[in-house]
Amino acid sequence: MDTSSTHYLCLAAALAPAYNLQQPIPVTIEQLTGILCCTPRNVKFILRKLEEQQLIAWIPGRGRGNRSQMTFLRHVDEVLEEGFQELVSKGRIKPAIELIGQYPVNEPLKERLLAVLDMQMGFRSEPGSESGQEVLRISRNRAMEKLDPATVYTAFETYLLGHICSTLITYDAQNGGFLPGLAHTWEANASSTSYLFYLRKGVRFHHGRMMTSRDVQETLQRLIRLNSPAICHFEDIIHVELEGDYRIRFDLVQPNFFFLHMFSSIYMSIVPYDVDFAEHPVGTGPYQVVDLSQDVLVLGAYDHYYGIRPLLDRVEIWYLPHLASGVRQYQLTDASTSLNSVPAVEDGRSHSIDYPAVGCRYMLFNFRKEGVHHHPTVRQALRILYNQLALIRELGGNRIMPADSFLPWQSSKHEFSEPLLEEAQALLQAGGYSGETVKLAYRTCHEDREEALWLQERSRKIGLQLELYPLSEYNLPNLMNHADLVICEEVLEDDWQWGMINYFRNESNYLHILLLDSHKQALIELLEPFARLAAGERAELLDVAESKLRDNCWVLYGCHMNKKAQLSQNLFGLQPGSFGFLDISKLWVKSGF
């Protein structure tokens, strides 16, 4: 976008709202110096340029006290749209986004511009080398949370960190075992109280230094130093011994058969001891962070990755809040597609893939706030309101299966029923409900808003005053202070036992923050032997823990979801990663279609 257009928009924003197009506006040079933040001499130069480009008509004032006259000759929306199109066509996505926020834009124009922006998502082959860089742009309608393996909890950020960082070992979902990562092998003693890892040699961090056992030790120390919300999982470790640069031993206070699960988790992503990860995200993964801001995360393929170099050279994740969608934006727009043509996802050369997520949607009560929801029969009434069968039948969409657990295979064992709403009304009365307002918090995504409105309508039928409270993403203080219950969704890792125990024990999630200390202590005591049990016994214990949530109506399970991604048919290397997302490092694009 040229400077003349920028100056035109700046002047129009300051002067034009009070005048019509083609109507002379009385101004002074002094007034324009304040608007354009430059000297009178530069103002006159800018005015000449605007006249030459037939953007304005300028009649200078003659004599002392006579004001000049400026006439805007083109509509502001027209100039703004041209500038936006120019920026987008050059791949300057960030300035294009800033342009929409910098100047007043009416809704129809904003929708049109954002549609243009959305078409820039997907695959691009860019000049700059003999073959051109292959770039994948992904849009997100939620702002990026903090990228730090010590504190991360949200699924998408965990998924991204898995491309930036590596762990000593990785969980193999197909076989339920573990594969080498930064450690090429490992061993445990007979009592499972000591684990020894043998590290790969020649592994480089993104800032160039070789990884050693000291980095592994300091990664664990960093969790302790930062008081990671997941530190409880590592409490059995009493000593760490560096047996040279490429061997490290962990000694435990008691047997721990879950130890390898912990060390394949995102929290034990190995980070360099000589870099502050919070300021400069540096790992050993297939992609390195090239740029990170409020608007975009840019990942570049790391040429010195110890594994197989990614085939896509760069991945850009853009925060586009107005493009709210439940569909993950992996679609690849043809590189030759013009800005005014139909995106590839609609031209018949695209398809979507479905992958049922392990996890579910649910409602959680805020026991930190006083209210009628503390009465068990009131919660039972809300259990009837948030009926799983009615939810799926009346709202449908990606809701594919009623939930009685976070685990779909556990839910499939349950026989669901649909009590009458009159039963919920009777339970409200039995609980002493007398017209108090119950406030339901929800995130401003499609599924949450849809369920909140649905629940409000069902509540009205039984006389429950349900007030809706839109919640900014992960705004915990507002949630704790104002809401009585909240609509949530939990998606578990491929290592579902790790995902479940982390849900119960992690101090940063809604469950931990909204339950009473007595509730949490009961869960902690119940799950205390978890790591000392065999896999089957751990599964049984997790089922008992879920029963406590279910039987006390601390959690109201809703439904299991089917996740979708829009994909071009020339996209290959489709391998699911964590949380059902695609593994970006395996993607490649076949050209010539």
Question: In summary, what is this structure?
Answer:
With 593 residues, the protein is of the alpha+beta class. Helices cover 33% and strands 22% of the residues.
Structure characterization notes:
The protein is built from 19 helices and 23 strands. Strands 15, 16, 17, 18, 19, 20 and 21 form a seven-stranded mixed β-sheet that branches. The protein has a five-stranded mixed β-sheet with strand order 4-5-14-13-12, with no helix packed on it. The protein has a four-stranded antiparallel β-sheet with strand order 8-9-11-10, covered by helices on one side. By secondary structure, the chain is an alpha+beta fold. It starts with a helix and ends with a strand. Strand 10 (237-242) and strand 11 form a beta hairpin. Helix 1 (3-15) runs antiparallel to helix 4, helix 4 (76-89) packs antiparallel against helix 5 (93-102) and helix 16 (496-505) packs across helix 19 (535-551). It is globular, with a radius of gyration of 29 Å.
SSE map:
Layout: H1 3-15, E1 25-27, H2 29-36, H3 40-52, E2 56-59, E3 68-72, H4 76-89, H5 93-102, H6 107-119, E4 122-126, E5 133-140, H7 155-164, E6 169-172, E7 177-180, E8 183-188, E9 194-199, H8 213-225, E10 237-242, E11 247-252, H9 259-263, E12 287-292, E13 296-301, E14 314-319, E15 350-356, E16 359-365, H10 376-385, H11 388-395, E17 399-402, H12 408-411, H13 421-430, E18 437-443, H14 446-461, E19 465-471, H15 476-482, E20 485-491, H16 496-505, H17 510-514, H18 517-527, H19 535-551, E21 555-568, E22 571-572, E23 588-589
Helix pairs in contact: 1-4, 2-3, 4-5, 4-6, 10-13, 16-19
